[in-house]
Amino acid sequence: MIKAVTFDLDGVYFTPGSFKRFTESMAGNTDTEKAEFVLKRSPQMLSFKMGKISEDKYWEWARKELILEISNDAIFKLLRNCYEVNPEVKDFVAEVKKKGLKACICSNNFVTRIRELDNKFNFLQDFDIKVFSYEEGVMKPEKEIFEVLISRSGVKPGEIIYADDNESKLQGAYESGINAFVYEGFDKFKQKINSLIK
């Protein structure tokens, strides 16, 4: 029996175009590919997502890499302006909760994005359980972050649904016994959830 549904944020709760717009806005005097590396895959961003470097230190480095002469506040405003909530997903989160299930987040993320988007959308109130890599010091696909999700949700691993569009990020969920599968778009995700919670 399913008792908790885990939602992804970037590209699911927030529209797929949101991060792309932010990347393009931050490209500055470099190209979009460089901006994407700095903002998504760089060792510095991974450290930021693990809570290992401070917000000021990360954005100071990012500005230098992207040759940007703007303040943190200007960057934060850009981030807020570039992001949109997917209303279908927001409605489905509410639907899941109405059915008595817990709505969860388990996300590799950084403090700036969560804080600024919550300031704009107040989205954290939509979720019962919130697990972020920057608070836990561990990232998906490591088993430890899923163990935090299990512990915080207060349900058995097999009672939790978790999906990710990157199959490699499912490994720790599988090892923890969570009901995990590859995310192949919101419509299929919704169908799968509805089939499991009937």
Characterization of the model:
- This protein is globular.
- Helix 2 packs parallel to helix 3 (43-49).
- It has a five-stranded parallel sheet with strand order 3-2-1-4-5.
- The model has no long low-confidence stretch (mean pLDDT 95).
- With 198 residues, it is α/β, with parallel strands linked by helices.
- Helix 7 (111-121) links the parallel strand 2 (102-107) and strand 3 (129-132).
- It has eleven helices and five strands, in the order βααααααβαβααβαβα.
- The chain starts with a strand and ends with a helix.
- It has helices at 16-26, 32-41, 43-49, 55-66, 72-82, 87-98, 111-121, 133-136, 143-153, 171-176, 186-197, and strands at 4-7, 102-107, 129-132, 160-164, 179-182.
- The protein has two domains: 4-15 and 84-197, 3-Layer(aba) Sandwich (Rossmann fold); 17-82.
Helix content: 40-55%
Order of helical and strand elements:
EHHHHHHEHEHHEHEH
Q: Give me the side-by-side strand order of the main sheet.
A: 3-2-1-4-5
Distance between the termini: 9 Å
Outline type? globular
Beta fraction: 5-15%
Task: Let me know the average pLDDT.
Answer: 95
How many domains in all? 2
Task: Count the DSSP helices.
Answer: 11
> How many strands, which pairing sense, and closed or not: the largest β-sheet?
5 strands, parallel
Name of the CATH class of the largest domain? Alpha Beta
Name the CATH superfamily classification of the largest domain. Answer: HAD superfamily/HAD-like
According to CATH, the fold-level topology of the largest domain is: Rossmann fold
Contiguous runs where pLDDT drops below 50 for at least 5 residues? none
Number of E strands? 5
